[in-house]
């Protein structure tokens, strides 16, 4: 798709223009959708008059589904500037502000929308009130000291916003009701007095019955029922409902990410020593990680805790959910184990990139067989001519997710290096010490060349030098032409040297660059990331 052809308007946002963006959204093509949304927003701003296409609402919802909140915000803002009376554009703009953490601005937008739609658009009014509840909820959850009265008032305001709408039409506004339930339970745990609401167990029972009486049952019905079961303390039932939710054909990454956030931030389900509470979180994370266009960021502590589960818990999980769910969660846990072999490379406090452990003989290096660090040459080099790279004398390698806790070491020497250009941009280093209990990664035996688009790829690194993250969004192989491969797995500064992995968690390549790259096959350019095939590195060493 040519995402850079100019969009033109003749006083109207033509359906054809919106349709091009809708095609990109339906194809889950985030780079194309981002570019087309930006071009459409520019075109809307420059139009002398605007009569919005009916397709704008679905497009904004589609951008939200792809979690392209910057693009969603920009297009909604452009639409509001041209036609300020569109309630959905105003609501989606408010939602994008929430996702950006701009809570005060979001509250102002949503409160005005709630007033303006109170009589004319009851559905939009209910949605706006629910988002006002979310603003107050996020303010409380992010409070540096939640015991302060002003933050506890935000919790009460959140409950009031959610429950007020739910009370008006309980069957229609279940998501507002289950948020009120979750916050009432959170207030009870935090010893915050919130008065004037029904008994929590009674509210949970009503929500559970209403959600499961829907015909057909939609994803949000199952998510509501799951939270209601948690509120009742029926965790095995909640786990079963969670499994139905993640397997529903209409459940997407946006839904899963929101539910996961709710279960962690509000219900505190990840602060439990195993059992069904943690299994619910693991199930949601596993399916989000495995879902096309999903995304997941895992802290080192979560990696350490989740990599291995007691055998008794594994047997119970398989008994409750069946073999398929068990296999998915085991795959996720293998990914956590894989992450333990990934390290941050830095000088002082300045992050330079990522590296990972492999066995030396898997790369063709001479004996002795030992674990070595693989990264980019522009991250680590003994050659002073390589710009911005760290010298082994000053580099620190930090395994944030090592099984026994954070492990830092230095570089003994660089055993092999090939320059960025015209070379492969790879360095292989011997470390002073190795983190106990970490298993080096294995190379992939082959990379399918006949159908690259069917291959899913994963990257684990330290984007922007931050916490360990799985980069899963746009996780498709685009093309392969030895010695490089192109893929849509998003990466960020600090990801240089990250392992590019297949679904078996074996190493396909080493990430080295990203941007608008020349296609490996045919003419033109496209948004892509580039890695060096691990087989090419081994071949170069053996040559």
From TrEMBL:
Gene3D superfamilies named in the record: Tetratricopeptide repeat domain, Trypsin-like serine proteases
Keyword field: Hydrolase, Protease
InterPro entries recorded: Peptidase_S1_PA, Peptidase_S1_PA_chymotrypsin, TPR-like_helical_dom_sf, TPR-S
Chain coiled-coil ranges: none
Name recorded for this polypeptide: Serine protease
Molecular-function annotations in GO: peptidase activity
Any one Gene Ontology BP term: proteolysis
Presence of the UniProt keyword Kinase in the record: no
Originating species: Rubrivirga litoralis
């Amino acid at each position: 798709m040519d995402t850079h052809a100019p969009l033109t308007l003749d006083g109207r946002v033509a359906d054809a223009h919106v349709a091009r963006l809708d095609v990109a959204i339906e194809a889950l093509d985030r780079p194309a959708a981002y570019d087309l949304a930006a071009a459409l927003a520019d075109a809307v701003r420059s139009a002398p008059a605007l009569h919005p296409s009916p397709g704008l609402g679905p497009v904004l919802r589609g951008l939200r589904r792809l979690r392209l909140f910057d693009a969603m915000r920009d297009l909604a803002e452009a639409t509001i500037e041209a036609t300020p009376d569109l309630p959905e554009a105003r609501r989606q703009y408010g939602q994008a502000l929430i996702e950006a953490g701009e809570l005060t601005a979001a509250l102002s937008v949503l409160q005005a929308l709630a007033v303006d739609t109170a009589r004319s658009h009851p559905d939009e009014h209910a949605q706006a009130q629910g988002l006002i509840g979310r603003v107050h909820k996020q303010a409380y959850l992010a409070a540096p000291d939640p015991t302060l009265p002003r933050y506890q008032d935000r919790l009460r305001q959140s409950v009031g916003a959610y429950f007020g709408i739910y009370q008006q039409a309980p069957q229609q506004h279940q998501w507002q009701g289950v948020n009120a339930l979750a916050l009432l339970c959170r207030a009870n745990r935090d010893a915050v007095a919130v008065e004037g609401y029904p008994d929590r167990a009674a509210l949970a029972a009503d929500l559970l019955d209403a959600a499961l009486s829907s015909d057909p049952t939609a994803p949000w019905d199952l998510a509501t029922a799951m939270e209601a079961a948690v509120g009742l303390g029926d965790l095995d039932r909640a786990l079963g409902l969670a499994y139905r939710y993640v397997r529903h054909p209409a459940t997407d990454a946006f839904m899963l990410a929101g539910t996961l956030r709710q279960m962690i931030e509000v219900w505190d389900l990840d602060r439990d020593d195993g059992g069904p509470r943690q299994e619910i979180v693991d199930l949601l994370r596993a399916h989000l990680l495995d879902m096309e266009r999903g995304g997941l960021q895992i802290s080192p502590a979560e990696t350490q805790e989740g990599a291995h589960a007691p055998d008794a818990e594994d047997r119970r999980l398989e008994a409750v959910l069946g073999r398929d769910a068990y296999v998915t969660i085991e795959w996720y846990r293998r990914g956590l184990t894989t992450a333990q072999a990934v390290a941050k490379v830095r000088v002082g406090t300045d992050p330079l990139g990522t590296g990972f452990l492999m066995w030396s003989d898997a790369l063709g290096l001479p004996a002795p067989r030992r674990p070595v660090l693989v990264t980019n040459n522009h991250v680590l080099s003994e050659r002073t001519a390589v710009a911005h790279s760290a010298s082994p004398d000053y580099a620190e390698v930090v395994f944030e997710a090592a099984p026994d806790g954070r492990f830092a070491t230095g570089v003994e020497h660089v055993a092999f290096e090939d320059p960025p250009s015209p070379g492969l941009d790879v360095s292989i280093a011997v470390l002073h010490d190795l983190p106990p209990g970490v298993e080096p990664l294995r190379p992939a035996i082959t990379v399918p060349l006949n159908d690259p688009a069917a291959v899913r790829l994963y990257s684990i690194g330290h984007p922007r030098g931050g916490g360990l993250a799985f980069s899963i969004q746009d996780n498709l192989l685009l093309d392969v032409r030895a010695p490089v491969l192109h893929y849509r797995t998003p990466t960020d500064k600090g990801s240089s040297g990250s392992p590019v992995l297949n679904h078996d968690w074996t190493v396909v390549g080493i990430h080295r660059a990203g941007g608008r790259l020349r296609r490996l096959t045919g003419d033109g350019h496209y948004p892509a990331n580039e890695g060096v095939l691990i087989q090419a590195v081994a071949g170069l060493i053996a040559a």
